[in-house]
Amino acid sequence: MTIQKTPHEEIEELLARIAMGDRKAFSALYDRTSAKLFGICLRVLGDRAEAEEALQEAYVRIWNRADAYRVNGFSPMTWLITLTRNIAVDRRRRRPARPAEALDLADTMPDTGPGPEDITEERSEAQRLHACLRELPDDRAALVRSAYLDGFTYAELSEATGIKLNTVRTWLRRSLIQLRECLAR
Amino acid sequence: MSVGVDTVGPEDGGTALAAEYVLGLMSDAESEAFEARLADEDALVDEVVLWTEYLARLVDAIPETAPAAAVKRRIEATAFGETLGRWSRSPLRQIIPYGIGGALAAMALWAAVSFGLVGGGGPEQPVLVADVTLEDLPVAIHAGYFAEAGELLVIREQGEVPAGADLELWLVQEGAAPVSLGLVPRTEERVRYPLADVVAADLGGATLAVSREPPGGSITGLPTGPVVGTAPVLPF
């Protein structure tokens, strides 16, 4: 009888093999994670061609830096997500300035919670996060989401919401502290 | 990994700072100051890990979208091509003396390294390239201008940016002040800089120069440190 590996363990193993230069493992990791990571690039950049470039940069970095994954102490999906999100955000911030799209804090993404394939530990983290976000006023939760998912700076958040810069900063900081207090419970 | 939730504690200003750091909301100066604290405060590191883990869960709400099949081929060609390049580049450098062979070497390297021609390559090719090796520093830099994207791709192909300094790229034209193109990437091997059309229009026939500058680059808009390498910008 074979012991079933968790998705977490499988991705960790793929990263370990990639660190040794295993191309098949890289191909398998890509097949497994690219739709999720491409979704992130599209969300941040809002442009398919740019998202593809960001995705390419992310996977080339994964290929070159898979050996660095262990050092940071993150779960494997967190490492992949964070690396990709930050590449996409960097690209968005480097491109010539254009007006931030209006962000309607009253009409933001529903809190759908974790997907079915999430593994147990990550699911419990996700559930806690989403429960704590629901404790915040809707507009404050939307600010937190936008800061992460759109990669907006304080100035962009202010422009997109029409709320003064200092107010946005205060609201977001307070919301983060409130969120953290809830997560610690 | 499992995340301890009562490390620094929410009452400490550290937690909001850690979250801002993870979200990328800090200015460069704030980030540097925070990173200096991270070096000494393990609890703050835990806080950064905790925020990174939790905030990454926000992407669960983003719909998954499969990229086009060509993207995978391009990625593999680039990733694996670079690996091959590690072995194939150095011998080329040994046999082609700089100067006369520089342009040829630059083109061969661009073909093999940057565009993954090994695997068929992509449609995107630079229109202009420059290939700079530095005096006194074991650093080799390739730059390529992509007209369609309006971007300059800068690759630090060999060597490291020296600690305590930055290397800045300049576009130099006879009779005109140098124009800063950006810094040579320190942690990454490559970076893309969007170029203004007026700058891009001057690229052909100009010279790319690299100067050694204080960390963060020249604040005067002109080179302040020694020029450590130059190369002509040539058609690819």
UniProtKB/TrEMBL annotation, chain A:
CDD domains: Sigma70_r4
Gene Ontology molecular function: any one: sigma factor activity
Keywords carried by this UniProt record: Sigma factor, Transcription, Transcription regulation
Domain RNA polymerase sigma-70 region: residue ranges: 29-95
Gene3D superfamilies for the chain: 1.10.1740.10, Winged helix-like DNA-binding domain superfamily/Winged helix DNA-binding domain
Pfam families the UniProt entry points to: Sigma70_r2 (PF04542), Sigma70_r4_2 (PF08281)
Keyword Nucleotide-binding among record annotations: no
Protein name in the entry: RNA polymerase sigma factor
Natural source organism: Roseivivax marinus
Origin organism lineage: Bacteria, Pseudomonadati, Pseudomonadota, Alphaproteobacteria, Rhodobacterales
